[in-house]
Amino acid sequence: MTITITCFDRSPDGGKGLARDTRVRWALEEAALPYEVRLLSFSAMKEPAHLRLHPFGQIPTYEEGDLALFETGAIVFHIAERHAGLLPDGANARARAITWMFAALNSVEPPILELSTARILEGDKPWSAERMPLVKDRVRDRLGQLSVRLGDADWLDGAFSAGDLMMVSVLLRTRPSGILDEFPSLAAYVARGEARPAYKRAFASQLAINAGTPPAG
Ligand SMILES: N[C@@H](CCC(=O)N[C@@H](CS)C(=O)NCC(=O)O)C(=O)O
């Protein structure tokens, strides 16, 4: 059955791979699943046709036969559950890998998104300069805790899993701020994710669409 995902026709990041379709592409590549891409403009994302797939008018979405999904956590989990390579076989190890997916999306991504919002949408507000250090420190707190847990391991819990895929994808968003490099073990962890052939294919396929798009912010 053909898998179709939706992506920006011009990603605001200019091809840095930070738009969330990259994590879905990565999961599909890890699972060796072919897929098609439907490109959407910002205005098309808010049209009824897309809102039927995604109630919040965002990308990415995932269609496979009569199944339509949104939310990258749900999409990557759906792929990981049905195909080898992204979740361990043992029940407890599997539950822990899923826990890391949730941790990436619920505990690590929120302060990182807050930093993006502060930079891109609130940077011109009179209180922005005063607030920014607080926002950055909240990101540093989380990354500090995560780097303690990672220690000198390659991945968060044994072999690479969907938990690492999601965590690396989330951490990549801290690179433009320079904060990732303040945590060398996390920077190396992210680099290990980026070195995976499946990630490289995912990155290249989004870059083929977005290269040359002027970065936003
Ligand atoms: N929680 C959602 C977030 C989706 C999201 O924020 N998508 C962004 C692109 S990375 C988007 O479509 N932004 C445009 C908009 O919200 O209008 C997920 O993980 O899928």
Describe the structure.
- The protein is of the alpha+beta class and 217 residues long.
- The protein is built from nine helices and four strands; from the N terminus they run βαβααββαααααα.
- The chain folds into two domains: 96 residues, Glutaredoxin (3-Layer(aba) Sandwich); 106 residues, Glutathione S-transferase Yfyf (Class Pi), Chain A, domain 2 (Up-down Bundle).
- A four-stranded mixed sheet has the order 2-1-3-4.
- The chain is globular.
- The structure holds glutathione.
- Glutathione (GSH) binds next to loops.
Q: Which ions, cofactors or small ligands are bound in this entry?
A: glutathione
Please work out how many helical segments DSSP would assign.
9
Q: Uncertain regions: pLDDT < 50 for 5+ in a row?
A: none
How would a textbook summarize the main sheet? 4 strands, mixed
The CATH architecture category of the largest domain equals Up-down Bundle
The domain tally reads: 2
Describe the secondary-structure layout.
Elements: E1 3-8, H1 21-30, E2 36-40, H2 42-45, H3 48-51, E3 61-64, E4 67-70, H4 72-82, H5 91-120, H6 128-150, H7 162-171, H8 184-195, H9 197-210
Parallel strand pairs: 1-2
Antiparallel strand pairs: 1-3, 3-4
Helix pairs in contact: 1-4, 1-7, 1-9, 5-6, 5-7, 7-8
The structure holds glutathione.
